[in-house]
Structures are given as C-alpha cells and as structure tokens.
UniProtKB/TrEMBL annotation:
Segments forming domain Thiaminase-2/PQQC: 13-223
Protein name as catalogued: Pyrroloquinoline-quinone synthase
Classification via NCBIfam families: PQQ_syn_pqqC (TIGR02111)
Keyword annotations from UniProtKB, A to Z: Oxidoreductase, PQQ biosynthesis
Length: 250
C-alpha cells in the first residue's frame, strides 16, 4: 500500500533535515578552510576545483530550460543563468570567482581552462549535469535546493576567510557576498515549486532522493580535495603547486 503524502510542513522539515545532516558545511575540508588551517596551495586547489562546479551551474540551468515548456517557469529560471554569466562585459558569478582566483595568486585563464581539475571533481560535476538533463523536472528542481543551506556556509566562509587569510577582502570575496542577496529569491521559488508539485509520497521520496544526490555531489568534491591536497595524493593531470600562477600575488 502506498504511503500517504506528507503534509507540506512535514515534507519541508524532511528536506531541511537532509541539509542539517548532509550539507557540505560539515565536511572536514570546510572546517579546515574556514578555520584558517588551509595552506595557500590547499586554498588554490579548492578555488581551481570549485571552478568546475561554478562554471557548470549556468550550463545545467540551460539544460533544464531546454526541457521546460512553460514560458513562466522559463522566465523565472533564466535569472539563474544571468546571475552566473553576467552581462557581455561585466558582472556575474563566474567573473567574481575568477577574481578570487587572481587574489589567491592563480592565473584566471588557467583556472577558467579547467585543465588542472581533478578527475573526481569532473565526474561528480558531470553526474550533476546529467541528472538535471535526464531526470524529471521536479527532481532537477529539488536537487537545486542545496541553496536552502548555502547562506549559512557563505556567511561562515566570509567570516573565516577575512579572519585568517591575507588575500581576503571585499573584492576577492564578492562572489559570496553577492550570493547572499541573489540566492534567497531562487530558494523561495524552488522550495515552493517542490512543495507544491511533490503532491504524492512517491514524488516526495524522489525529490528527497534528488536533494540527497546533490549533497553527495558536493561532498564528493571535498573528499577528493582532501585526498589530493591535504593527504598529498594528487592524481595524474590535476593541478600541482606552482602551476598556473599569476604574474603577481595579492
């Protein structure tokens, strides 16, 4: 016998509990980063590998939009692409991430090339792209709900980086500050969409599984960083300290 759907409030609580248990703010690498214990090269490795994820966000949103037949949903969702890509010559989360890359001493062109990204990072990010491209729209929206938990990690990151790292200032951390104001609108819409459209227990279970999948994607990237750059097992082809450096450091 199929279980009845959870109430809207109970289902929202279920989704939020996933973040409390599984979001990557709990990962030891972020504890190390925010506490000021990362070496400069560990920070650089994080910036390089996180770029792979950042750069694919507008691509996964474009893949999502290509499947949406409702013009109203497309109008709302395309803001996400604009937030990351910006205008032709200015703005956008991708440019702000590359400003962070320069601030930590990396050549932004090197970072944007993704040449130094670890294989595990590529696999995790590609898995997310395929998920959004191939799974039901409800599941794809549910996977984006890790944004529910992002403001906390952005605030921790700003505080921790400013307290512990010389490169940190308003310019280098502009990506995180901007997301504090950009993300709430996306979160409110995405959460309401999932709570409204997951109207059976089967759909609720699938949406919860999608959110768990996304937390796994984020967690796996940090597992790879720890193994490669904290434990010192850098895989073949991945960035090695000294490569891709800017002509000057902050």
């Amino acid at each position: 016998m199929t279980e009845p759907a959870q109430s809207r409030a109970d289902f929202e609580a279920r989704l939020r509990a996933i973040g409390a248990e599984r979001y990557h703010d709990r990962h030891p690498f972020h504890v190390r980063l925010h506490g000021g214990h990362c070496t400069p090269d560990e920070v650089r490795a994080w910036v390089i590998n996180r770029w792979q994820y950042q750069s694919r966000i507008p691509m996964k949103d474009a893949a999502f939009l290509s499947r949406v037949t409702d013009p109203d949903l497309r109008r709302i969702w395309r803001k996400r692409i604009e937030d990351h890509d910006g205008g032709r010559d200015e703005g956008g989360g991708l440019r702000r991430w590359l400003a962070l890359a320069r601030a930590v001493g990396l050549n932004p062109d090197y970072v944007a090339s993704s040449v130094g990204v670890m294989p595990a990072t590529r696999f995790a990010v590609d898995a997310y792209l395929r998920f959004v491209r191939d799974m039901p729209l409800l599941d794809a929206v549910a996977a984006s709900l890790t944004e529910l938990f992002a403001p906390k990690i952005h605030a921790q990151r700003i505080e921790g980086l400013l307290a512990h790292y010389d490169f940190a200032d308003d310019s280098s951390l502009s990506y995180f500050r901007t997301r504090l104001t950009e993300a709430p609108e996306d979160v409110a819409f995405g959460l309401d969409y999932v709570l409204t459209h997951a109207d059976t227990r089967e759909k609720q279970d699938a949406a919860a599984a999608a959110l768990i999948f996304k937390t796994d994607v984020l967690w796996a990237q940090l597992d790879a960083l720890w193994h490669g750059y904290v434990d010192g097992h850098i895989p073949p082809g991945a960035w090695r300290p000294g490569e891709g450096m800017a002509l000057w450091t902050h």
